[in-house]
Design a protein that fits this description.
alpha/beta; eleven-stranded mixed beta sheet; two-stranded antiparallel sheet; 15 helices; binds zinc ion
Length: 474
Protein backbone atom coordinates (compact mmCIF):
# COMPACT_ATOMS: atom_id res chain seq x y z
CA UNK A 1 0.00 0.00 0.00
CA UNK A 2 2.76 2.41 0.96
CA UNK A 3 4.82 1.52 -2.14
CA UNK A 4 1.76 2.11 -4.24
CA UNK A 5 1.19 5.50 -2.61
CA UNK A 6 4.77 6.61 -3.28
CA UNK A 7 4.43 5.46 -6.88
CA UNK A 8 1.09 7.24 -7.20
CA UNK A 9 2.34 10.60 -5.90
CA UNK A 10 5.56 10.21 -7.90
CA UNK A 11 3.59 9.73 -11.09
CA UNK A 12 1.43 12.77 -10.35
CA UNK A 13 4.52 14.86 -9.62
CA UNK A 14 6.08 13.79 -12.92
CA UNK A 15 2.92 14.61 -14.89
CA UNK A 16 2.54 17.94 -13.16
CA UNK A 17 6.12 19.15 -13.41
CA UNK A 18 6.51 18.10 -17.04
CA UNK A 19 3.51 20.15 -18.11
CA UNK A 20 4.95 23.45 -16.86
CA UNK A 21 7.25 25.72 -18.73
CA UNK A 22 10.18 27.04 -16.69
CA UNK A 23 8.92 30.57 -16.14
CA UNK A 24 5.62 29.48 -14.61
CA UNK A 25 5.51 29.94 -10.88
CA UNK A 26 3.85 27.18 -8.92
CA UNK A 27 4.23 27.49 -5.17
CA UNK A 28 4.46 24.04 -3.62
CA UNK A 29 2.36 25.15 -0.67
CA UNK A 30 -0.15 28.00 -0.50
CA UNK A 31 -1.59 29.04 2.87
CA UNK A 32 -4.36 31.63 2.84
CA UNK A 33 -5.36 33.35 6.07
CA UNK A 34 -8.71 35.09 6.05
CA UNK A 35 -9.64 37.39 8.89
CA UNK A 36 -13.39 37.59 8.39
CA UNK A 37 -14.43 41.22 8.85
CA UNK A 38 -10.80 42.29 9.52
CA UNK A 39 -10.13 45.87 8.56
CA UNK A 40 -6.90 47.83 9.15
CA UNK A 41 -8.27 49.06 12.47
CA UNK A 42 -9.08 45.56 13.73
CA UNK A 43 -5.39 44.78 13.39
CA UNK A 44 -4.47 48.05 15.11
CA UNK A 45 -6.73 47.56 18.16
CA UNK A 46 -5.23 44.11 18.75
CA UNK A 47 -1.71 45.51 18.27
CA UNK A 48 -2.33 48.29 20.80
CA UNK A 49 -3.61 45.70 23.29
CA UNK A 50 -0.85 43.14 22.56
CA UNK A 51 2.16 45.43 22.19
CA UNK A 52 1.13 49.01 22.96
CA UNK A 53 1.99 49.93 19.35
CA UNK A 54 1.37 48.99 15.72
CA UNK A 55 3.82 47.43 13.26
CA UNK A 56 4.69 44.47 15.50
CA UNK A 57 2.62 41.78 13.78
CA UNK A 58 4.74 39.31 11.84
CA UNK A 59 2.75 39.97 8.65
CA UNK A 60 3.19 43.76 8.90
CA UNK A 61 6.82 43.04 7.95
CA UNK A 62 5.84 41.00 4.86
CA UNK A 63 7.37 42.24 1.57
CA UNK A 64 4.01 42.65 -0.19
CA UNK A 65 1.55 44.97 1.55
CA UNK A 66 -1.39 46.29 -0.43
CA UNK A 67 -5.00 47.30 0.03
CA UNK A 68 -7.80 45.19 -1.42
CA UNK A 69 -11.27 46.14 -2.63
CA UNK A 70 -14.08 43.68 -2.04
CA UNK A 71 -17.30 44.98 -3.66
CA UNK A 72 -19.74 42.41 -5.06
CA UNK A 73 -21.97 42.34 -8.15
CA UNK A 74 -24.83 44.66 -7.26
CA UNK A 75 -22.56 46.56 -4.88
CA UNK A 76 -20.63 49.81 -5.29
CA UNK A 77 -17.27 49.63 -7.10
CA UNK A 78 -14.69 51.09 -4.71
CA UNK A 79 -13.79 54.67 -5.55
CA UNK A 80 -11.01 56.10 -3.35
CA UNK A 81 -12.07 59.71 -3.84
CA UNK A 82 -15.66 59.04 -2.80
CA UNK A 83 -14.51 56.82 0.08
CA UNK A 84 -12.45 59.63 1.63
CA UNK A 85 -14.86 62.53 1.08
CA UNK A 86 -18.20 60.99 2.06
CA UNK A 87 -18.17 59.13 5.41
CA UNK A 88 -21.20 57.01 4.56
CA UNK A 89 -20.09 56.03 1.03
CA UNK A 90 -18.58 52.69 2.18
CA UNK A 91 -21.80 51.71 3.96
CA UNK A 92 -23.74 51.58 0.68
CA UNK A 93 -24.62 48.00 -0.43
CA UNK A 94 -21.63 46.39 1.26
CA UNK A 95 -20.35 42.95 0.28
CA UNK A 96 -20.56 39.75 2.29
CA UNK A 97 -18.41 36.74 3.13
CA UNK A 98 -20.11 34.62 0.46
CA UNK A 99 -19.69 37.04 -2.46
CA UNK A 100 -16.22 38.24 -1.48
CA UNK A 101 -15.10 34.74 -0.52
CA UNK A 102 -16.21 33.47 -3.93
CA UNK A 103 -14.07 36.14 -5.61
CA UNK A 104 -11.08 35.11 -3.48
CA UNK A 105 -11.71 31.40 -4.08
CA UNK A 106 -12.45 31.53 -7.82
CA UNK A 107 -11.43 34.92 -9.26
CA UNK A 108 -15.04 35.65 -10.27
CA UNK A 109 -17.22 38.32 -8.72
CA UNK A 110 -20.73 37.26 -7.86
CA UNK A 111 -23.89 38.28 -6.02
CA UNK A 112 -24.75 38.51 -2.33
CA UNK A 113 -25.06 35.02 -0.68
CA UNK A 114 -23.53 33.06 -3.61
CA UNK A 115 -21.26 30.16 -2.65
CA UNK A 116 -18.86 29.71 -5.59
CA UNK A 117 -21.52 30.06 -8.26
CA UNK A 118 -21.58 33.01 -10.68
CA UNK A 119 -24.41 35.47 -11.20
CA UNK A 120 -26.19 32.95 -13.48
CA UNK A 121 -25.79 30.35 -10.71
CA UNK A 122 -23.26 28.29 -12.69
CA UNK A 123 -20.69 26.45 -10.57
CA UNK A 124 -17.21 28.01 -10.46
CA UNK A 125 -13.98 26.07 -10.07
CA UNK A 126 -12.35 26.93 -6.74
CA UNK A 127 -8.63 27.12 -6.05
CA UNK A 128 -8.91 24.07 -3.79
CA UNK A 129 -10.52 22.12 -6.64
CA UNK A 130 -7.77 23.31 -9.00
CA UNK A 131 -5.15 22.27 -6.46
CA UNK A 132 -6.64 18.75 -6.40
CA UNK A 133 -6.52 18.58 -10.21
CA UNK A 134 -2.75 19.00 -10.11
CA UNK A 135 -2.29 16.49 -7.30
CA UNK A 136 -2.03 18.75 -4.26
CA UNK A 137 -3.69 18.14 -0.92
CA UNK A 138 -6.19 20.67 0.43
CA UNK A 139 -7.88 21.80 3.62
CA UNK A 140 -10.10 24.42 5.28
CA UNK A 141 -10.02 25.44 8.94
CA UNK A 142 -12.24 27.94 10.79
CA UNK A 143 -13.19 29.17 14.24
CA UNK A 144 -16.87 29.18 13.15
CA UNK A 145 -19.00 26.33 11.72
CA UNK A 146 -17.15 24.76 8.77
CA UNK A 147 -20.25 25.08 6.57
CA UNK A 148 -20.25 28.87 7.09
CA UNK A 149 -19.68 31.03 4.01
CA UNK A 150 -15.90 31.48 4.13
CA UNK A 151 -14.79 27.84 4.42
CA UNK A 152 -17.71 26.83 2.17
CA UNK A 153 -16.75 28.96 -0.86
CA UNK A 154 -13.49 27.03 -1.24
CA UNK A 155 -15.17 23.62 -1.26
CA UNK A 156 -18.89 23.82 -2.08
CA UNK A 157 -21.23 25.45 -4.61
CA UNK A 158 -24.66 26.72 -3.72
CA UNK A 159 -26.96 29.55 -4.69
CA UNK A 160 -27.28 30.56 -1.01
CA UNK A 161 -24.89 30.55 1.93
CA UNK A 162 -27.88 29.85 4.16
CA UNK A 163 -28.43 26.34 2.74
CA UNK A 164 -26.11 25.00 5.45
CA UNK A 165 -27.31 21.39 5.27
CA UNK A 166 -26.72 21.14 1.51
CA UNK A 167 -23.36 22.90 1.78
CA UNK A 168 -22.14 20.63 4.58
CA UNK A 169 -23.38 17.58 2.68
CA UNK A 170 -21.39 18.60 -0.41
CA UNK A 171 -18.28 19.29 1.67
CA UNK A 172 -18.46 15.94 3.47
CA UNK A 173 -19.87 13.54 0.89
CA UNK A 174 -18.85 14.96 -2.50
CA UNK A 175 -15.72 17.09 -2.14
CA UNK A 176 -12.14 15.88 -2.48
CA UNK A 177 -10.79 18.12 0.27
CA UNK A 178 -8.53 16.32 2.79
CA UNK A 179 -9.07 18.35 5.96
CA UNK A 180 -12.11 20.21 7.28
CA UNK A 181 -12.05 21.78 10.75
CA UNK A 182 -14.53 24.09 12.44
CA UNK A 183 -17.62 24.34 14.61
CA UNK A 184 -21.20 23.28 13.98
CA UNK A 185 -21.26 20.39 16.47
CA UNK A 186 -24.90 19.32 16.97
CA UNK A 187 -24.27 17.89 20.42
CA UNK A 188 -22.97 21.11 21.97
CA UNK A 189 -24.37 24.52 22.71
CA UNK A 190 -23.05 27.74 21.24
CA UNK A 191 -21.04 28.30 24.43
CA UNK A 192 -19.28 24.94 24.23
CA UNK A 193 -21.32 23.11 26.87
CA UNK A 194 -22.54 19.62 26.19
CA UNK A 195 -26.14 18.82 25.41
CA UNK A 196 -27.31 15.99 27.60
CA UNK A 197 -29.51 14.20 25.13
CA UNK A 198 -30.96 14.71 21.71
CA UNK A 199 -34.35 15.45 23.24
CA UNK A 200 -33.06 18.63 24.85
CA UNK A 201 -31.47 20.10 21.76
CA UNK A 202 -32.68 23.63 21.15
CA UNK A 203 -34.12 24.79 17.89
CA UNK A 204 -33.14 28.42 18.20
CA UNK A 205 -29.89 29.96 17.05
CA UNK A 206 -29.16 31.29 20.48
CA UNK A 207 -30.49 29.93 23.72
CA UNK A 208 -29.59 29.55 27.39
CA UNK A 209 -27.39 26.77 28.67
CA UNK A 210 -29.41 23.59 28.64
CA UNK A 211 -29.27 21.55 31.80
CA UNK A 212 -30.37 17.94 31.91
CA UNK A 213 -33.90 18.76 32.99
CA UNK A 214 -34.71 21.62 30.66
CA UNK A 215 -36.81 20.70 27.72
CA UNK A 216 -36.51 22.82 24.61
CA UNK A 217 -38.36 22.27 21.33
CA UNK A 218 -36.61 19.55 19.43
CA UNK A 219 -35.91 20.23 15.79
CA UNK A 220 -33.60 17.65 14.34
CA UNK A 221 -33.36 19.40 10.98
CA UNK A 222 -32.23 22.64 12.62
CA UNK A 223 -29.89 20.98 15.10
CA UNK A 224 -27.92 18.98 12.55
CA UNK A 225 -27.94 21.50 9.70
CA UNK A 226 -24.31 22.66 10.04
CA UNK A 227 -23.04 19.07 9.65
CA UNK A 228 -25.25 18.07 6.72
CA UNK A 229 -28.16 16.53 8.63
CA UNK A 230 -28.51 13.71 11.12
CA UNK A 231 -27.84 10.90 8.63
CA UNK A 232 -24.56 12.44 7.47
CA UNK A 233 -23.51 12.98 11.10
CA UNK A 234 -24.23 9.34 11.90
CA UNK A 235 -22.19 8.24 8.87
CA UNK A 236 -19.31 10.41 10.12
CA UNK A 237 -19.49 8.81 13.57
CA UNK A 238 -19.47 5.34 11.98
CA UNK A 239 -16.46 6.33 9.82
CA UNK A 240 -18.42 5.73 6.63
CA UNK A 241 -18.82 9.24 5.17
CA UNK A 242 -16.62 10.57 2.36
CA UNK A 243 -15.86 9.77 -1.28
CA UNK A 244 -12.68 9.24 -3.28
CA UNK A 245 -10.38 12.19 -2.49
CA UNK A 246 -7.30 11.16 -4.49
CA UNK A 247 -8.83 9.62 -7.64
CA UNK A 248 -7.50 6.14 -7.00
CA UNK A 249 -10.99 4.64 -7.27
CA UNK A 250 -11.17 3.86 -3.56
CA UNK A 251 -13.29 5.82 -1.09
CA UNK A 252 -11.40 7.82 1.53
CA UNK A 253 -13.80 8.06 4.48
CA UNK A 254 -13.39 10.82 7.04
CA UNK A 255 -11.90 10.32 10.46
CA UNK A 256 -14.14 12.46 12.72
CA UNK A 257 -12.56 14.15 15.73
CA UNK A 258 -14.30 16.40 18.26
CA UNK A 259 -12.11 16.62 21.37
CA UNK A 260 -9.36 19.22 21.71
CA UNK A 261 -6.86 16.49 22.66
CA UNK A 262 -7.34 14.85 19.27
CA UNK A 263 -6.71 18.10 17.40
CA UNK A 264 -3.54 18.58 19.46
CA UNK A 265 -2.45 14.99 18.90
CA UNK A 266 -2.42 15.51 15.12
CA UNK A 267 -0.06 18.51 15.30
CA UNK A 268 2.78 15.99 15.03
CA UNK A 269 3.35 12.39 14.06
CA UNK A 270 1.21 10.01 12.05
CA UNK A 271 -2.30 11.07 11.06
CA UNK A 272 -5.25 9.50 9.27
CA UNK A 273 -5.59 10.10 5.53
CA UNK A 274 -8.57 12.49 5.85
CA UNK A 275 -9.72 14.30 8.98
CA UNK A 276 -12.87 16.26 9.74
CA UNK A 277 -12.62 18.07 13.07
CA UNK A 278 -15.90 19.36 14.46
CA UNK A 279 -14.98 21.02 17.74
CA UNK A 280 -17.30 21.01 20.72
CA UNK A 281 -19.46 24.06 19.97
CA UNK A 282 -22.55 24.37 17.86
CA UNK A 283 -21.37 27.80 16.74
CA UNK A 284 -17.97 29.53 17.12
CA UNK A 285 -15.01 28.42 19.25
CA UNK A 286 -14.90 31.12 21.95
CA UNK A 287 -16.88 34.25 21.19
CA UNK A 288 -20.18 33.05 22.72
CA UNK A 289 -18.58 31.34 25.69
CA UNK A 290 -20.48 33.09 28.46
CA UNK A 291 -24.09 34.10 29.11
CA UNK A 292 -23.39 37.78 29.01
CA UNK A 293 -21.75 39.31 25.99
CA UNK A 294 -21.52 42.73 27.57
CA UNK A 295 -18.34 44.61 26.91
CA UNK A 296 -15.55 43.70 29.30
CA UNK A 297 -11.82 43.03 29.29
CA UNK A 298 -10.26 40.60 26.80
CA UNK A 299 -9.79 37.11 28.28
CA UNK A 300 -11.53 38.06 31.56
CA UNK A 301 -13.99 35.20 31.07
CA UNK A 302 -12.30 31.77 31.17
CA UNK A 303 -11.80 30.21 27.72
CA UNK A 304 -13.61 27.01 26.68
CA UNK A 305 -10.72 24.67 27.46
CA UNK A 306 -12.37 21.79 25.59
CA UNK A 307 -12.09 23.61 22.26
CA UNK A 308 -8.89 23.80 20.15
CA UNK A 309 -7.36 27.16 19.29
CA UNK A 310 -7.03 28.30 15.69
CA UNK A 311 -3.28 27.71 15.75
CA UNK A 312 -3.74 24.18 17.07
CA UNK A 313 -6.24 23.42 14.33
CA UNK A 314 -4.14 25.03 11.59
CA UNK A 315 -0.92 23.26 12.61
CA UNK A 316 -2.79 19.94 12.83
CA UNK A 317 -4.29 20.53 9.38
CA UNK A 318 -0.82 21.24 7.96
CA UNK A 319 0.58 18.07 9.53
CA UNK A 320 -2.23 16.03 7.98
CA UNK A 321 -1.65 17.31 4.43
CA UNK A 322 2.09 18.09 4.32
CA UNK A 323 3.22 14.56 3.33
CA UNK A 324 2.16 15.10 -0.28
CA UNK A 325 5.29 15.77 -2.41
CA UNK A 326 3.11 17.99 -4.66
CA UNK A 327 2.35 20.25 -1.72
CA UNK A 328 -0.94 21.63 -0.46
CA UNK A 329 -3.34 24.55 -0.40
CA UNK A 330 -4.83 25.41 3.00
CA UNK A 331 -7.30 28.10 4.06
CA UNK A 332 -7.36 29.16 7.73
CA UNK A 333 -10.13 31.53 8.80
CA UNK A 334 -10.43 33.76 11.85
CA UNK A 335 -14.18 33.61 11.40
CA UNK A 336 -15.34 35.18 14.63
CA UNK A 337 -13.51 38.51 14.18
CA UNK A 338 -16.55 39.30 12.06
CA UNK A 339 -19.02 37.94 14.62
CA UNK A 340 -17.51 39.99 17.45
CA UNK A 341 -17.47 43.10 15.28
CA UNK A 342 -21.12 42.60 14.26
CA UNK A 343 -21.97 42.92 17.95
CA UNK A 344 -19.51 45.82 18.30
CA UNK A 345 -17.83 43.87 21.12
CA UNK A 346 -14.40 45.45 21.45
CA UNK A 347 -12.90 42.92 23.91
CA UNK A 348 -14.09 39.93 21.88
CA UNK A 349 -12.92 41.45 18.60
CA UNK A 350 -9.46 41.89 20.14
CA UNK A 351 -9.47 38.29 21.46
CA UNK A 352 -10.34 36.87 18.04
CA UNK A 353 -7.80 39.09 16.25
CA UNK A 354 -5.06 38.02 18.68
CA UNK A 355 -5.92 34.36 18.05
CA UNK A 356 -5.64 35.00 14.31
CA UNK A 357 -2.31 36.84 14.76
CA UNK A 358 -0.86 34.02 16.86
CA UNK A 359 -1.86 31.46 14.24
CA UNK A 360 -0.08 33.36 11.48
CA UNK A 361 3.02 33.63 13.67
CA UNK A 362 2.96 29.88 14.36
CA UNK A 363 2.59 29.05 10.68
CA UNK A 364 5.40 31.44 9.66
CA UNK A 365 7.57 29.47 12.12
CA UNK A 366 6.39 26.25 10.47
CA UNK A 367 7.46 27.61 7.06
CA UNK A 368 10.90 28.55 8.35
CA UNK A 369 11.39 25.24 10.19
CA UNK A 370 9.73 22.69 7.92
CA UNK A 371 9.53 24.37 4.51
CA UNK A 372 10.93 27.65 3.13
CA UNK A 373 9.73 30.88 1.53
CA UNK A 374 11.12 29.51 -1.76
CA UNK A 375 8.43 26.85 -1.89
CA UNK A 376 5.62 28.24 0.26
CA UNK A 377 3.39 31.29 -0.28
CA UNK A 378 1.44 32.88 2.55
CA UNK A 379 -1.40 35.29 1.79
CA UNK A 380 -3.29 37.17 4.51
CA UNK A 381 -6.38 39.23 3.84
CA UNK A 382 -10.05 39.76 4.72
CA UNK A 383 -13.31 39.34 2.85
CA UNK A 384 -14.60 42.73 4.04
CA UNK A 385 -14.55 45.02 7.06
CA UNK A 386 -17.18 44.68 9.79
CA UNK A 387 -18.39 47.40 12.17
CA UNK A 388 -16.93 50.53 10.51
CA UNK A 389 -14.44 50.59 13.38
CA UNK A 390 -12.74 54.00 13.66
CA UNK A 391 -11.57 56.48 16.27
CA UNK A 392 -13.95 58.24 18.67
CA UNK A 393 -15.42 61.51 17.47
CA UNK A 394 -15.33 60.59 13.78
CA UNK A 395 -17.93 61.93 11.36
CA UNK A 396 -18.80 65.00 13.42
CA UNK A 397 -20.61 67.97 11.96
CA UNK A 398 -18.41 70.61 10.40
CA UNK A 399 -15.50 68.23 9.78
CA UNK A 400 -14.02 68.68 6.31
CA UNK A 401 -10.56 67.17 5.89
CA UNK A 402 -9.80 63.44 6.09
CA UNK A 403 -8.10 63.82 9.47
CA UNK A 404 -11.06 65.78 10.81
CA UNK A 405 -13.68 63.29 9.55
CA UNK A 406 -11.81 60.08 10.43
CA UNK A 407 -10.37 60.40 13.91
CA UNK A 408 -7.60 57.97 14.94
CA UNK A 409 -8.25 55.17 17.40
CA UNK A 410 -6.82 56.10 20.81
CA UNK A 411 -4.03 53.82 21.98
CA UNK A 412 -4.26 53.44 25.77
CA UNK A 413 -1.18 51.24 25.99
CA UNK A 414 -0.35 47.54 26.23
CA UNK A 415 -2.98 45.45 28.01
CA UNK A 416 -5.49 48.32 27.90
CA UNK A 417 -8.58 48.59 25.73
CA UNK A 418 -8.11 51.27 23.08
CA UNK A 419 -10.84 53.90 22.68
CA UNK A 420 -12.89 53.41 19.52
CA UNK A 421 -16.22 54.14 17.89
CA UNK A 422 -18.28 51.75 15.73
CA UNK A 423 -20.46 53.14 12.95
CA UNK A 424 -22.42 50.05 11.86
CA UNK A 425 -23.40 46.58 13.06
CA UNK A 426 -22.96 45.38 9.48
CA UNK A 427 -20.22 45.27 6.84
CA UNK A 428 -18.53 48.07 4.92
CA UNK A 429 -16.83 48.34 1.55
CA UNK A 430 -13.66 50.01 2.88
CA UNK A 431 -10.36 48.67 1.55
CA UNK A 432 -9.09 45.75 3.60
CA UNK A 433 -5.42 44.90 4.10
CA UNK A 434 -3.59 42.36 1.92
CA UNK A 435 -0.21 40.86 2.87
CA UNK A 436 1.87 38.24 1.04
CA UNK A 437 5.24 36.59 1.50
CA UNK A 438 7.04 33.73 -0.21
CA UNK A 439 7.23 32.28 -3.70
CA UNK A 440 4.98 34.13 -6.15
CA UNK A 441 4.06 36.93 -3.73
CA UNK A 442 5.39 39.68 -6.02
CA UNK A 443 2.94 38.64 -8.79
CA UNK A 444 0.07 40.35 -6.94
CA UNK A 445 1.71 43.72 -7.67
CA UNK A 446 0.91 43.22 -11.37
CA UNK A 447 -2.79 43.75 -10.63
CA UNK A 448 -2.86 47.20 -9.00
CA UNK A 449 -6.30 48.77 -9.53
CA UNK A 450 -5.58 52.21 -8.13
CA UNK A 451 -3.86 54.28 -5.51
CA UNK A 452 -5.86 55.06 -2.39
CA UNK A 453 -4.86 58.32 -0.71
CA UNK A 454 -4.84 56.67 2.73
CA UNK A 455 -4.13 52.96 2.11
CA UNK A 456 -1.90 53.25 -0.96
CA UNK A 457 -1.94 50.87 -3.91
CA UNK A 458 -4.73 48.32 -3.94
CA UNK A 459 -5.80 45.21 -5.79
CA UNK A 460 -9.24 43.60 -5.95
CA UNK A 461 -10.43 40.40 -4.27
CA UNK A 462 -11.00 38.81 -7.70
CA UNK A 463 -7.32 39.42 -8.53
CA UNK A 464 -6.32 37.26 -5.57
CA UNK A 465 -8.51 34.41 -6.83
CA UNK A 466 -7.16 34.81 -10.36
CA UNK A 467 -3.47 34.96 -9.41
CA UNK A 468 -3.78 31.84 -7.25
CA UNK A 469 -5.85 30.06 -9.93
CA UNK A 470 -3.04 30.79 -12.42
CA UNK A 471 -0.51 29.28 -10.02
CA UNK A 472 -2.60 26.11 -10.07
CA UNK A 473 -3.27 25.82 -13.83
CA UNK A 474 -2.65 22.37 -15.29
ZN1 LIG B 1 -20.25 39.44 8.71
Amino acid sequence: MKVFKVFFWGLILFLVSSSFSKDNITPKNIIIFLGDGMGYNHIDIASYYQFGETGKQVYEKFPVKLGMSSHMIGGVVYNPDSAWTNFNYVKKRPTDSAASGTALATGTKTYYTAISVDSSKTKLLTILERAKMIGKSTGVVSTVPFSNATPAVFVAHNESRYNYREIAEEMILESKVDVIMGGGNPLFNHDGTSIKSERTIGAKESYDIVDGDTSIITDIEETFKYVGGKEVWNLLIEGKAGGDADDDGIDDPWKLIQKRDMFKKYISGETPRRVIGVFESRQASQIEREDSLDNGEPFSAPLNENIPTLDEMTLAAINIIDDNPNGFVLVSEGGAIDWAAHSNLLHRTIEEQIEFNKTIEAVCNWVETNSSWDETLIVITADHETGYLVGPGSNREGAETISEIWKPIINNGKGKLPTVEWFTKGHTNVLVPFYAKGVGSEIFRNYIKGNDKVRGEYIDNSDVGNVISNFLKK
